[in-house]
Give the backbone structure.
Amino acid sequence: MSWQPEIEERERRAAIAREMGGADSVAFQHGRGKLTVRERIDLLADGGSFMEAGELAGRPQWDDAGNLTGLTPANSVTGVVRLGGRKAVVHGGDFTIRGGASDGSIADKAGWATKQSYAMKIPYIRLLDATGGSVRTFEQIGRTYLPHNNRELEVELLQRVPVVSAVLGSVAGLPAVQSAMCHFNVMVKGTSQVFVAGPAVVTAGTGATITKEDLGNEDVQVRQSGVIANLAESEEDAFAQIRRFLSYLPANAWEMAPRTEPMDDPGRRDEGLLSIIPRNRRRVYDPYKVLDMVLDRDSFFEIQPLYGRGRITGFARVNGYPVGVMINNPRIAGGSMDRAAGEKMARLLQICDTFHLPLAYFCDEPGFSVGLDEEKQGIIRAGARVVSLLSLSQTPYITFIMRQSYGVAGGLHYRAGNTMYRRFAWPSGHWGSMHIQGGVAVAYRREIDNAPDPAQRRAEIEARLEAIGSPFRTAHAFELEDIIDPRATRPLLVDFVEDAQSVLQSQLGMTSRIPFLP
């Protein structure tokens, strides 16, 4: 006797589950310019690779004879996908069923996904489109309950595998917190918002009236708070960014990052590097052109391009090997490090240390941003955090000082200890504890004030100090490996990254002294 009838019944119930919240709810989702959770997974994953778990999970309805008369599916979809042939766990909220609220959940599908990612040591991707908790839950369980924190496994997961969150709708409560509990996140322009509590709760709690866009759209969360790293033009763009981000990282902390077939000459010496830094120190240049000339062509993926814009951070490839990259942006506040730029550097350091990527820094650092606004925002604490993280970091680190390196912020081009580190400078480099122009006014104030012509005396002192500020004098003291022809930057970078591979191999596993914290 065959089990075919049961198989057919199973398929009938699965078909009901795949209808999600029904035709009207799906049409409503599409009408808001958003995809359904199943469409999102199909767009994210390699074609046909999704292996769903809990497809039949839901709330069934029965007649008196025990026959199934209806099925309300769980309001989330989870399983394993492949991205570029590599496996990852995905969990997505289904807004077509109770807005993805917790009272529409069945068991703990998100917990299953977290455990699978943890046990299999493969990346975890959250597709967030959920409103979080609901007071309807109280009626369902017949009581209220004490809030609790059972996120330990999610925090441990950050030390083991890459975790990504995509904000694909209005996200509040626990899903909003989960949007930040990751190594990379992205939201979609015009259709996504993220906040601790939505407008109705804000009004009830504070009396203020505000729209969900003003409370948590991309201007708030990408440009101002930096809670969300990248902004996507569409859901398709969001998934493309997720795929690209993960392509630079290993599946877990026990594996090496994947190398791709090099498509660029490792010995390339771009002539543009010889003149990219203007002799006039008041003039700026395009830092993206520098990266294009030294990294593998078209390999740079920027992270948080709209936040902390004085420093550019991201991933790239050097002779096919993934690397972390940062460079000052002289077009924004001279490239000085403000609190936001410090946060970006801290996150990049943690990711590189956790997943064993070498880090390359192209330094033009005038120092920490100064002024009352920065003091109010806590620039001192941000600076202390970055100094501490760099001191603990073990990943191979190389610096090319292109122009400036001043003060404590400038000192972040350097790392002491026994970890792999190299440092080169271009002939355009100049550095010190502080800028000569500002420092002279302080250190020689009495001499200047007592001079017959204070302006002339100040100019004389500055000229005298500038004369001994040549980078070649520093090289004579062997404070750096060498002053180099800027055109040699890429070959030296390639050599460093290749040498770093054996060091990284010895660091595999959860060996980082820096725990990754959101």
